[in-house]
Specification:
The complex is a heterodimer of chains A (321) and B (258). Chain A is an all-alpha fold. Chain A has a domain of 200 residues. Chain A is globular. The two termini of chain A are 25 Å apart. Chain B is built from 10 helices and 10 strands. In chain B, the strands form 2 sheets. In chain B, strands 6-7-8-3-9-10 form a 6-stranded mixed sheet, sandwiched between helices. In chain B, strands 2-1-4-5 form a 4-stranded antiparallel sheet, with helices on one face. In chain B, a hairpin with a 2-residue loop joins strand 4 and strand 5. The radius of gyration of chain B is 19 Å and the shape is globular. Classes of the chains: A mainly alpha (321), B alpha/beta (258). At the A-B interface, helix 6, helix 7, helix 8, helix 9 and helix 13 of A face helix 2, helix 3, helix 4 and helix 5 of B.
């Protein structure tokens, strides 16, 4: 069942996503682009919160750091958009590592409060025009936009496809993570970090690793976000955004389909019900309340048992003997 | 004295005013099956926590292969070949049996941190080789049929075996078992005894805490008895059974304990 969804589901998902701009008007194209970008950030949050089990409530900080890195390099130093991408991955990743280092031993709610603090410090820094390059409360405007050659008539959809490409890249990384020693180590330390230490896993290093990877992916999402609006402003990365990413992972569950569902419920549904004005955020609250009561591990929880097929078949035969 | 011995000298561990382990010394020789016994609350598990770095002791020394490991962090001690199981089973409950055992391969795997982002041909080979070892280990513990089962859904006796398989996947030189027979029925205990011998036959030293006296007297070659954190006797099982101090402190209260 799971295998079927993976084999058929992902290509189908990407085909549908690739064709989506053809049927959407410009408002819904913006929603779709944001959906893709938020999915990337939520996947990055999932590395830290879902896989490694650390209560990080400051993911918007890394998202914003990536966006601001791109915006500053583009507007102040005139770098082309694409060239800023590697820097927008590396700087948030380094910040993730440096910030996580001293706080990684904190558990649960303590870590949560510290990461909220980080997020607020970041917002204050950019709002107060740190170094004279962040543009203060208004942010940075008039960034160059990525052009996709040969798509002159369809240029409106360029940010969407850029975001979709980055999502593909993120899913590739997540897949590799799941089938590697480092990725499994994250699951082990979420389940029981004393036991993980007792079989030789350096829990500190892998917790910091989770922050590094999560921050890097969020930074990448920041670049496409800056590209989408050709602008960045502080309120897009404030504490409330972190709450959104946090609750997407909790509501959706720590799996790729879960994250997609989470972003849909927490972001797309409120957009669909826009005619109900601010009432639409009711869904936001109710989604959190009911999933926690009815499905405490999320709408589509993580599935384990990822054992290479060759070995599993051998195991199955043995069981029948 | 062989070099692969575990030597505890005057180990003392305090929790606030409570002296949990008091001036304890003993030597586990290479290849031995060594038992640490004592009444409930005697401080046996605390001794294990001192050896494995979970609660480092304040005084004394813990020598392993001639090196002082008293203040090393747990994962370093594991890398030196000391692996333990827990009295209360500590498995990764949501994950499958094979994934739990795979965790033991962590320090044997040659993958770097960046292989978590991009795989290389060598990281893929390493991954396959480690799964191979995992399935050999599952075979050794007769767990193959449960490979894909979620650990928390399995009976207690099987979970105990999974925990031992996970520890063995690390390829330890010294295996520390904290009450391996707790919660097992007679059949399972018998299998456990055979398994302990098979592990010893692989050249692995075993140090165990156990309340099941039949098991202790049968498998161990040498014993240390502690009460209130300090040693009251040591010797081979025969000597211990006849030691008056042990009978008074421990076997004398058999009715209470068992």
């Amino acid at each position: 069942m799971m295998k079927k969804i993976q084999v058929i589901g992902y290509p189908l998902f990407f085909v549908v996503m690739a064709l989506l701009p053809a049927v959407l008007d410009s408002r819904w194209l913006v929603v779709a682009t944001t959906f893709v970008i938020f999915t990337i950030v939520a996947l990055s949050q999932d590395v830290i919160l879902g896989k490694a089990g650390m209560f990080n409530m400051g993911q918007a900080l890394f998202f914003g750091l990536g966006a601001y890195t791109t915006a500053i390099l583009n507007s102040v130093y005139g770098w082309p958009m694409l060239a800023t991408l590697p820097v927008a991955i590396i700087i948030p990743a380094l910040f993730g590592i440096v910030l996580a280092g001293p706080i990684i031993h904190l558990r649960g709610d303590y870590l949560l409060v510290v990461t909220i603090g980080f997020n607020i410090v970041f917002i204050q820094a950019v709002q107060n025009n740190l170094g004279g390059v962040t543009g203060g409360p208004n942010g940075i405007f008039g960034l160059e936009m990525l052009q996709i050659p040969g798509m002159g008539a369809f240029q409106e959809a360029a940010p969407y496809y850029a975001a979709l490409f980055v999502l593909l890249l993120t899913l590739f990384i997540i897949r590799n993570l799941e089938s590697s020693k480092a990725g499994r180590a994250l699951h082990y330390l979420r389940e029981d970090d004393l036991a993980a230490g007792s079989i030789g896993i350096n829990t500190r290093v892998y917790k910091i690793f989770a922050f590094g990877v999560g921050a890097g992916i969020a930074g990448m999402a920041g670049t496409v976000f800056a590209n989408q609006y050709s602008a960045v402003s502080p309120e897009a990365f404030n504490f409330l955004q972190s709450v959104l990413f946090f609750s997407i992972v909790i509501v959706g569950g720590s799996s790729v389909p879960g994250i997609l569902l989470g972003v849909f419920v927490m972001f797309v549904l409120p957009e669909i019900f826009r005619e109900f004005a601010t009432w639409r955020y009711f869904i936001f609250g109710f989604a959190m309340i009911f999933t926690m009561i009815l499905r405490p591990r999320g709408l589509w929880p993580a599935k384990f048992g990822r054992i290479p097929k060759a070995f599993l078949e051998k195991g199955g035969n043995h069981g029948q003997q | 004295m062989a070099s692969n011995d575990l030597v505890l000298t005057n180990v003392t561990k305090r929790f606030g005013g409570l002296v949990a382990v008091d001036d304890l010394s003993f030597t586990v020789q290479q290849g031995q099956i060594y038992g640490l016994i004592g009444p409930n609350g005697a401080g046996k598990t605390t001794v294990f926590n001192c050896i494995t770095g979970i609660h480092p002791c304040e005084e004394g020394s813990v020598l392993w292969c001639g090196e002082e490991i008293r203040l090393l962090p747990t994962h370093k001690i594991v890398q030196m070949g000391i692996v333990r199981t827990f009295q209360t089973i500590r498995l990764f409950g949501q994950m499958s049996v094979a994934e739990n055992v795979m965790s033991g391969r962590h320090i044997k795997s040659s993958q770097s941190w960046w292989n978590g982002i991009i795989h290389t041909p060598s990281s893929k080979r390493d991954e396959t080789a480690n799964w191979q070892v995992v399935f050999e280990m599952l075979d050794f513990f007769d767990l193959t049929e449960f490979a894909a089962s979620t650990v928390s859904s399995l009976p207690y006796g099987i979970q105990r075996r999974v925990e031992m398989a996970r520890a063995m996947a690390v390829e330890p030189k010294l295996l520390i078992l904290d009450e391996p027979a707790a919660g097992l029925n007679d059949n399972e205990t018998q299998t456990l005894i055979e398994t302990i011998y098979r592990i010893r036959d692989k050249g692995i030293t075993i140090l165990l805490i156990e309340h099941d006296m039949d098991l202790v007297m049968e498998v161990t070659e040498y014993l240390t008895v502690i009460n209130f954190g300090s040693k009251i006797a040591e010797g081979n099982p025969g000597e211990i059974q006849e030691n008056p101090a042990v009978i008074e402190a421990y076997l004398g209260s058999e009715d209470d304990d068992f």
